[in-house]
Each structure stands twice: as structure tokens, then as C-alpha cells.
Amino acid sequence: MSETLRLPGPRDVRATVSRTDTEAAVVACPPHPQMGGDRRDGRLRAVSDALDDRAIACLRFDYGPWDEGQAEVTDARSALAWARENFQTVGLFGYSFGGAVALRAATQESQSDSAPAALSLLAPANSLAGDSVVDAVDAVPCPVQVLYGERDDTVDSVPVAQRARERGHTVEALSADHFFVGQQARVAESVATFFADSM
Predict the structure, then answer these.
(1) What is the CATH number of the domain that holds 19?
(2) Is pLDDT at 114 greater than 90 in this prediction?
(3) Which pTM does this prediction carry?
(4) What is the model's pLDDT at position 196?
(5) Of 114, 165, 167, nearest to 139 (Cα)?
(6) H-run or E-run covering 190
(7) φ and ψ at 186, to 5 degrees?
(8) What's the rounded Cα separation, in Å, for the pair 140 and 126?
(9) Which of 77, 79, 92, 99 is deepest in the core (most CB within 10 A)?
(10) Contact criterion met (CB below 8 Å) for 26 and 53
């Protein structure tokens, strides 16, 4: 049974946690809020369901007021902090814009108690607020997974994927577009398996 809550922090961030009866959770960062991205995104829900099958909770959240990608990272960090207070082990997932947010949040939290145990990026944007996030891959101290569509003409995830591959992380190219039409279940299984094996 999912629970809706307001996360503590400087911004109005609402979230849904899928379960609280487990020791592990994954924070899921949604796609671009100005393009309709929120915690109800189909890919995030599919990942949440697949995690639930493995007794891993999923905290999906909505960003606070739009801030060009800057404060959205703060929102992700607030979600990580809340999850870390309520679960023993916490992973971080992001899709599209949310992938760039997750990558930046993971590096900013790398030296804190809220640092994720594993990071999965689905079709991650390669920049945030006009700045590249590719170099951030170098600063992530945990296992990383990057999944991207070979026919994606919405976001260029290849630079992030290439850097992750160079660092020995898990990278998978799928025969898909940016939205993974008809492949959400397959993607969700891959993401959930990665977290189950890595956290």
C-alpha cells in the first residue's frame, strides 16, 4: 500500500513511497516537469512495481517549483535524505531529465550519509541547467547502470553512457526510442535486477 507524504526540506516536494516494511529503497527522479514529467510517469511506476517484487521500496517524488534544473537537484537530495532516515540501504534512479538530476545529486551526496549505494540512469540527459553532467560520472563512488535507446532523438545519452562504460560501469543500449514504448517492463526488470544485485 503506497503512502503519500511531503518531504522535509526548503521546497514543497511531494512524494509517494510504495512500502515501508523493508530495509532497502530506491529514490526515483522523474523526467522534465515542464514536459509533463512527474512521479506518475509510466517508466517510474514500472520500476517501482519491479522493485516491489524484490521487496525494495520506491520513493517517487515531484519536483518543487521549476528552477531550471538547479533546485531540482536539491529536491532529489531531500528525497535521498528522507529515504536514508527511513531505510537502511538507498539507491537512486533517474529517467531523462531525472537522470541528469540523479547523477548530479549522487555526486553532491558522495561524501555524505545520504550517498546512494547504487545509481541507475535511464536515457539520461547529458546536461543540466546548461552545464554538462558527463564528468560527474567520474565522481560517483557507487555502482552505476546506464540504459539508453539507440533510436532516441529526444535526448543524447551517449556521452554519459560512453563515460560510464570507460569507468567500467554497466551500460546497455536498447533498440528503442526515448520513451521505451512496449519495453517498459523489460527496462524495469533490468533496473530492479541491478539494484537487487548492487545494494
Answers:
(1) 3.40.50.1820
(2) no
(3) 0.97
(4) 98
(5) 167
(6) helix 184-198
(7) -65, -45
(8) 15
(9) 92
(10) no
